Amino acid sequence: MNIADELGWYPYYLSSGTFNGLVPFDIPENFHQRVFLAFPNWLDDFTKKGFDFYVNLKEKYNLPNKYQFKQLLVLGAAMIYVEAVRNCGRKLSKHKLVQKLEEMYVYETGLIPPITFGLNDRIGSAEIYVVSVDLKNKNLILESNF
């Protein structure tokens, strides 16, 4: 984006907000209202219990603020995995793990949208949040979710 800024070229930038490596507020200010990111989770998905759990881990292991959305997503996924393994009991196998994941129905982690898996449904959550990056006020603005 810095090269585009040097050239005076400001195209729209559309990307995943979680895994693109971009630090939104480091983008040149000339891209204001031209950057849109998609996230699988948003502030509405957090419960107090889930967010408190994350904050305790963050403080205990001194996690950086820079990757907060990624941390929340990965922690939510890890919680789903741990719950499925726990439900397998002592005889853990790949087949049993997949079976227990497929039995998850509206499983809430408190960090990501409730997850439902099924025999032919391996997506879990189909919701997505699109935000714009307000480079002047250093803020993310929820544009839509679907």
Low-confidence stretches: none
Question: How would you describe the shape?
Answer: elongated
Number of helices: 4
Please give the number of β-strands. 6
Instruction: Name the helicity range.
Output: 25-40%
What is the average per-residue confidence, as pLDDT, rounded to a whole number? 87
User: Over all CA atoms, what is the radius of gyration?
Assistant: 18 Å
Number of domains: 2
Which series of helices and strands comes N to C? HEEHHHEEEE
Provide the β-strand percentage band: 15-25%
Largest sheet: 4 strands, mixed
Strand order of the largest sheet: 1-2-5-6
Distance between the termini: 28 Å
* Overall SS class: alpha+beta
Observed structural traits:
34% helix, 2 domains, alpha+beta, 6 strands, two-stranded antiparallel ribbon, 4 helices, 146 residues, single chain, 4-stranded mixed β-sheet
Q: Could you explain how this protein is built, in words?
A:
- With 146 residues, the chain is of the alpha+beta class.
- The protein has 2 domains: 59 residues, no CATH class; 85 residues, no CATH class.
- 34% of the residues lie in helices and 20% in strands.
- It has 4 helices and 6 strands; from the N terminus they run αββαααββββ.
- The strands form 2 sheets. The protein has a 4-stranded mixed beta sheet, with no helix packed on it. It has a two-stranded antiparallel sheet with strand order 3-4.
- The two termini are 28 Å apart.
- 16% of the residues are buried.
- The mean pLDDT is 87.
Helix-strand layout with pairing:
Blueprint: H1 2-7, E1 13-16, E2 35-39, H2 48-61, H3 68-88, H4 94-102, E3 116-118, E4 121-124, E5 129-134, E6 139-145
Parallel strand pairs: 1-2
Antiparallel strand pairs: 2-5, 3-4, 5-6
Helix pairs in contact: 3-4
